[in-house]
Design brief:
By secondary structure, the protein is mainly α. The protein is about 50% helix and about 5% strand. The structure holds a DNA duplex (13 and 13 nucleotides). One of its GO terms (molecular function) is methyltransferase activity.
DNA sequence: AATTTGACATATA
DNA sequence: CTATATGCCAAAT
């Protein structure tokens, strides 16, 4: 694994309940500002193995754009359970629920 | 090894 | 707001 993937996993695991992060943010913090898609891959591929809270990862608009409707529905339900605020549009309130994370490099791994 | 593929982002019109 | 285009990089095939 490259550092990016490792960091991405750590970051995702560190997202607290009631908070969400965007793909772009995770990628950026993990070291690749344009690696949003890798975050997607990491999630989908590693979620089963690493027990990642994939449901706390959404796109930059706060909208759930997941291909699987069941997954999207579950995600929304879980987020609501955790206290994430949803707007009337069905979007997550990023202003309130986005988890801004600053990495100190050595703290990870 | 080479090519395709993604739970996407950002820019531009 | 929608639509189209382009970039991006690791995992999967």
């Amino acid at each position: 694994m490259n550092p990016f993937t490792e960091k991405a996993i750590q970051i995702i695991k560190s997202i607290p309940q009631g908070k969400v992060m965007t793909y772009g943010q995770i990628a950026k913090v993990a070291g690749s500002p344009r690696g949003a898609r890798q975050v997607v891959r990491v999630l989908h591929s590693m979620s089963a193995n690493y027990n990642l809270p994939w449901h706390r990862v959404i796109n930059a608009k706060g909208e759930i754009v997941i291909a699987d409707e069941e997954s999207a529905y579950s995600q929304k339900a879980m987020l609501k359970e955790e206290g994430v605020k949803f707007l009337a549009n069905g979007r997550v309130d990023l202003k309130e629920s986005r988890y801004d994370l600053n990495v100190a490099e050595e703290d990870w791994i």
